[in-house]
Amino acid sequence: MLKRSSFSSRFLPYLLILPQLLIILTFFYWPAAQAFFQSFMLSDPFGVRSQFVWLYNFRHLFEDPLYWKSIGITFIFSFLTTMLSLSAGLLTAALANRVLKAKSAIRTFLIWPYAVAPAISGVLWMFIFHPTFGIISRLPMQWLGITWNPILNGNDALFLVIIASAWKQISYNFVFFIAGLQSIPKSLIEAAAIDGAGPFRRFWTISFPLLSPTLFFLMVMNVVYAFFETFGIIHTVTQGGPGGATMTMIYKVYRDGFVGLDLGSSAAQSVVLMIVIVALTLFQFKYIEKKVQYAG
Amino acid sequence: MKLRQLAAVFLVMGFGVMFMTSDLMAKPIEIQFWHAQTGALEESLKKIVNAFNQSQNKYVVIPVAKGSYSETMNAGIAAFRSHNQPHILQVYEVGTQTMMLSRAIYPVYDLMKDTGHHIDWNGYLQPVLSYYEASNGELQSMPFNSSTPIMYYNKDMFKKAGLNDPPKTWEDLGKAAARLVASGVVEYGMTSAWQTWVMIENYSAIQNIPIASEANGFDGLDARLTINNPMLIHHFERLKQWMNDKRFVYEEREYKGPQAAFISGKCAILMDSIGAIGTLKHNAKFDWGAAPLPVEASNKEPQNSIIGGASLWVLKGHPKEDYQGIADFLAFLATEDMQILWHKETGYLPITLKAYEKLKSSGYYQKYPAQEVGILQLTRKAPTVNSRGIRLGSFPQIRDVMNEEIEMLWQGKRTAKQALDDAAGRGNELLRQFEKRSE
Amino acid sequence: MVENNPWLDAVTYTLLILVIVIVSFPIFYTLIAATLPLEDVSRIPMPLIPGNQLLVNLKAAWLKGSMGIELLNSFIMAAGITIGKISISMLTAFAIVYFDFRFRKIAFVAVFCTLMLPVEVRILPTYEITANIFGPMQNIIQLFKINTIISYLTGSRFHFSIRFSLLDSYAGLILPLTASATATFLFRQFFLTIPEELCEAAKLDGASPMKFFTRILLPLSKTNIAALVVIDFIYGWNQYLWPLLITTNPRMTTAVIGLERLIPQMDELPTWNVAMAGALLVMLPPALLVIFMQRWFIKGLVDSEK
Asked: Residue C306: which pLDDT band, with cuts at 50, 70 and 90?
């Protein structure tokens, strides 16, 4: 998308994107290209032996029913995580934007959790939800009579990693939603109030459409987050178990590449993952961005 | 104006070239030692390194913590690929095969011989050495932190249920657990940490049956898993049955849940590494004891258990004079004083018989009998092909697969036979992949 | 707030408090754990009433590592990443939204794709290029046998090799993590919402593109920059695997790595109280930043004429 009114300059735009380009070419595209070549190779981790095997790694992957299962899990996981974290973030931002008292304290409390180092937050989740020593599973779950065992029950485990992943993202979404809400001119809201629109209607007819660029941004970001950045949580909480119930595609890439040191298969999986997410993102840009309301 | 535009862009780029290099101290030869120990273990490791550094002035060993075991191994691999490798790399036991085949290592046996160290390898605990030996008996890496699983039991609960001694056989364990649960003393009978290590790898070693062909993988890359044998199937059927009547409870693949279950009194028996002794000493508010892992009643002469933990690998590609320092350090590590210090502070096994004898004669094991259980279990018989260790490629993933399939059994989605068949099938697939990569 | 509605206010506050309780429960839990002695922290389940060991644990955490230098390194790294990300991506977004040039779309897609592979997944090749930033050049030299050709042409032995390592340096910590699709994307989204009239007016006044950028876009982007500063700083601050791999000099260690070392491993005492005290120390700088950035968040564009 481009502004109707744009500047024209021959060299300036290239100069402007140059620093970014240098960084991504060096530290992203070059390594990514190597990973791409790696997906056609079978090699030992030390790089002493390697052989070109054409599409062997891909064929092997798609013949594995567990890989298909992992793709299914990834979609369920990503969809639910995104929906949960987006709606919670939006709701919280809308609420926080209304209040007058203790404004900054409330915001600080909502943003701060984002600062918890992943190493600690993963551990905390286990402390809180572990069937034996977790505080939540000991008390509330027992009172409610819910049999809760993410160690043994695949659905419980998936539920747990979805909650943990969404929780981590609520603060993130909150930050951008509140920044978006703050940018909405007060005059618009006041005008609507004078016209007699109630708070809910004002939100839906004015704030929400004006927020749509932020919402679109966050939707894309959250899908990417769910696909890619959640392996840390899965690693500390379930390690893909029980019985592979939380083995998402990215965790499998991590597990096979980093722990299993199967570079070829891991690279092939990265390539598949990239194709999936690029397709998904293109879809979002092509169909969903149409509904986004930019400059009014 | 143009100038200001340029200035703005260059400012951003200027930031790009900002860098700092670390200054290097010159004199003694530096030996980089990358390890995966944190917390108290790192403190103990540093004590040993400092003692070595103070004992001479030609070499300085620099210990660098590189995160978890898999992170440390990846750091070593990445560094080797770009010629920045450390001299010594600590690798967990499941990475042994990968390291051995890497062509990146200087085998410890050769290193010691080449640098003029005459080491009496017979003075070492054999099951510890054998895990890291090539099939010709030459040691490939230096054992460092070695542990083995044993059985812990809650003496108070045993007393209340009218039981005295810890069960010696699985049969007795079943009876004891039934009694513990039936008497209402405890909710569950027993649990186990690291189920694949305890229930498959160690169970098989103690019963003297292989878990893979080709002498557990020592003799060739074409090894196939044999974990779906009648004995293991029976063992897992039994565990599943015990799970149904609360004699056994599954807590998790690793150790936190099982330890918590034992410490909180949720179950009366725990099978876990000897490394758990320290935690139990501090946190268990009851009288507890340690005993060897149970054996089958028919097994009159149980084999040694096998070890877990990690060893130190020496990497190629450094100047010749560095290797003398590395060898000196490894020899220093194996001295009695250092082994005694390491064993006392961390609970890991001492690797030489002399260190063990010295500890014994000083009365250490009378004071801490639990510490000796692992050593006795490990040395009760000379290791056989089935109990000297496991040499499989992609072993971390094979453990994942075994865990996944066993979890299916616990969930009731597979029978013991199906689970072990599937685990063997999927594991073999991984082994073939590994074989192919190593050609 | 536009009107007063006590009922709605009550609901708002109740819900907010509920969300705060849920979202910040882990911090609360960390805080409690950091105040307990070892026996209590390993009780099952852990008590939720604070103990009196906070200072003892904080001291233990501080003494175990070299927190001072680690915090400084983390700060340099996080600040470098934040400044780098925001400046290069603002410039990129400006170019993409306000200029019509041939590779505009491709540039955006190229930047955007960098979201798709986190550093953990392409760790080996990224490490390799950081270990020798001229690696690609070296490959080209090898591929085209340039050394051999020159040797042949000049008749003398010629060997050209170039190596420059960013390992164990701040540049190595910062640069590979500086590319930011997120920030570029966010600024693109934001610039697209800015009324066309502003640009038209600037052009009528004869302002150059860079003047428009510094005088108009920059001030308008305040809230978004504030949001990104918080997010990117925390992102940089919490990096674990990358600094772990590329630094071996203890003086280059970052705070999160120091913290990881406090986390009890298997086979050792579960001193969670000390680990949690360390977590509090490590969390403090980002928390201070959030409090500091508050001002920007609240003011933002609300007061500015639009």
From this structure: very low
CATH superfamily of C75-220: MetI-like (1.10.3720.10)
Per residue in A183-216, pLDDT tens? Answer: 787 788 788 888 888 888 888 888 888 888 889 9
- Could you report the per-residue pLDDT of C250-297, keeping only the tens digit for each? 888 899 888 888 877 766 777 888 888 988 899 889 888 888 887 776
* Partner-chain residue, chosen from A6, A109, A138, that has the shortest CB–CB distance to C100: A6
Q: Are B232 and B204 in contact (CB under 8 A)?
A: yes
What pLDDT does C205 receive? 87
pLDDT band of residue C137 (cuts 50, 70, 90) is confident
Q: What pLDDT sits at residue B101?
A: 93
Q: Bridge-partner residues for B59, per DSSP?
A: B29
CATH code for residues B149-305+393-437 = 3.40.190.10
**Does the predicted interface ipTM exceed a cut of 0.90?**
no
The answer to whether the CB atoms of C250 and B282 lie below 8 A apart is no
CA distance B143 to B312: 6
Cα A249 from chain centroid? 13
pLDDT at B20: 36
C 159-188 residues with CB < 8 A to A: 175-176, 178-179, 182, 184-186, 188
Each residue's pLDDT tens digit, B33-44: 999 998 888 889
**pTM, to two decimals:** 0.88
Q: Which of A69-83, B327-341, C16-30, C70-84 has the lowest mean pLDDT?
A: C16-30
Q: Is A118 on the interface with C (CB under 8 A)?
A: yes
Picking from A129, A256, A117, B401, the residue whose alpha carbon sits closest to that of residue C287 is A117
From chain A, pick out residues whose CB is under 8 angstroms from the CB of C184. Answer: 20
Q: Would B29-147+308-379 and B149-305+393-437 be classified into the same CATH topology? A: yes
How close does chain A come to B379, measured CA to CA in Å? 31
CATH homologous superfamily of B29-147+308-379 equals Periplasmic binding protein-like II (3.40.190.10)
Domains of chain A: residue spans and CATH = 55-291 (1.10.3720.10)
Domain segments of chain C as ranges: 75-220
| DSSP codes of every residue in chain C | --S--HHHHHHHHHHHHHHHHHHHHHHHHHHHHHHS-HHHHTSSSPPSS--S-HHHHHHHHHHHTTHHHHHHHHHHHHHHHHHHHHHHHHHHHHHHHHB--TTHHHHHHHHHGGGGS-TTTTHHHHHHHHH-TTHHHHHHHHHTTHHHHHHHHHSS----------TTSHHHHHGGGT--HHHHHHHHHHHHHS-HHHHHHHHHTT--HHHHIIIIIHHHTHHHHHHHHHHHHHHHHT--HHHHHH--SGGG--HHHHHHHHS--TTS---HHHHHHHHHHHHHHHHHHHHHHHHHHHHTTTSS--
CA dihedral B341, B342, B343, B345 (to 10 degrees): 80
- Report chain B residues whose CB lies below 8 A from the CB of A258: 70, 74
C-alpha pair distances (Å), B64 with each of A119, B61, B236, C16, C172: 19, 10, 41, 45, 18
What is chain B's mean pLDDT, rounded? 91
Q: Which helix (H) or strand (E) holds B145?
A: strand B142-147
Tell me how far apart the alpha carbons of residues A71 and A120 are, in angstroms, rounded to a whole number.
28
pLDDT score of B19 more than 50: no
List the domain boundaries for chain B: 29-147+308-379, 149-305+393-437
pLDDT at A142 over 70: no
pLDDT tops 60 at residue B245: yes
Among the listed residues C233, C180, C86, C188, the one whose alpha carbon sits nearest the alpha carbon of residue A217? C188
Q: Do A216 and C189 touch, CB atoms closer than 8 A? A: yes
- Angle, helices B320-333/B39-55, rounded to nearest 10 degrees: 120
